[in-house]
Amino acid sequence: MRWSVLVTLLTCCLVAAGCTTTINGSAVAAGAPSCVGGTVVQPKGAPYCYLLPAGFVDVTDHVTLQYRSANPGRYITSVEVAQLDVITVSDYPLRTDSDSVSMSSLTNQIVAALPDPAAGGLTPGQPTTTTLDGARTVELTFDQTGEYSSVLYFAFRGYDEIEVDCQWAADKAEIDRGCASVRDTIRF
Questions:
Q1: Can you list the positions of beta strands (E) in the chain?
Q2: Ordered alpha helix ranges (H), 114-155
Q3: Do 167 and 150 touch, CB atoms closer than 8 A?
Q4: Rg of the chain in Å (alpha carbons)
Q5: Is residue 140 a contact partner of residue 154, using CB atoms and an 8 Å limit?
Q6: Helices 4-21 and 103-113: crossing angle, nearest 10°?
Q7: Taking Cα atoms as reference points, which of 76, 96, 177, 183 lies closest to residue 134?
Q8: CA-to-CA dists, residue 181 to 80, 90, 94, 133, angstroms
Q9: What's the pLDDT band for 103 if we cut at 50, 70, 90?
Q10: Which of 119, 154, 159, 164 has its CA 20 to 30 A from that of 21?
Q11: Which of 24-33, 65-74, 179-188 has the highest mean pLDDT?
Q12: pTM to 2 decimal places
């Protein structure tokens, strides 16, 4: 199935995000982000937008998530250059204001929520910190030996966690380029 690897990785990320993202009620975006200068990728009502990287195709309408979660991502977008060479972006509403939580605590919660690598065959790398659109971000790599690799960015601002998943099976250079474009142009 075309999206089975993507779904596996997204499920892993939902588990990682689930530790801090269960809410009652709904979060309200502070204001609509603005992206200009190219083809804008932004689901209606989403608290984020970014520019479509050159050479990528927006395949958001063709992505079907095949899992159930108590706290699924919202506003999921997906762009690709080839099957399994894909970048997905989604929003996870948080129950508390992440601005009041230390970066080390956010990192520890993500790491603690990761599945056992032996159980799923996913091997996580060591987390590092960076920023996306000025927001505190945890960067984490995953490797599914012989199938695909991925770099995930968990960006925290207020009551939102924006997750960017840059996954490749065959064309790492194109995903690296496209991922850099999404990271540079994302606004939330």
A1: 40-41, 50-51, 57-58, 74-82, 85-93, 122-124, 128-132, 135-144, 148-157, 160-168
A2: 117-120
A3: yes
A4: 15
A5: yes
A6: 130
A7: 183
A8: 13, 16, 26, 12
A9: very high
A10: 119
A11: 179-188
A12: 0.80
- Residue 134 makes CB contacts below 8 A (sequence gap 6+) with none
* Residue 10: closest CA among 120, 94, 137, 174: 120
Cross-strand bridge partners of residue 164: 89, 153
Q: In angstroms, rounded to a whole number, what is the distance separating the alpha carbons of residues 55 and 65? A: 24
Nearest-angstrom CA–CA distance, 183 and 176: 10
Q: Choose the weakest-confidence range: 11-15, 61-65, 141-145.
A: 11-15
- The Cα–Cα gap between 48 and 17 comes to 18
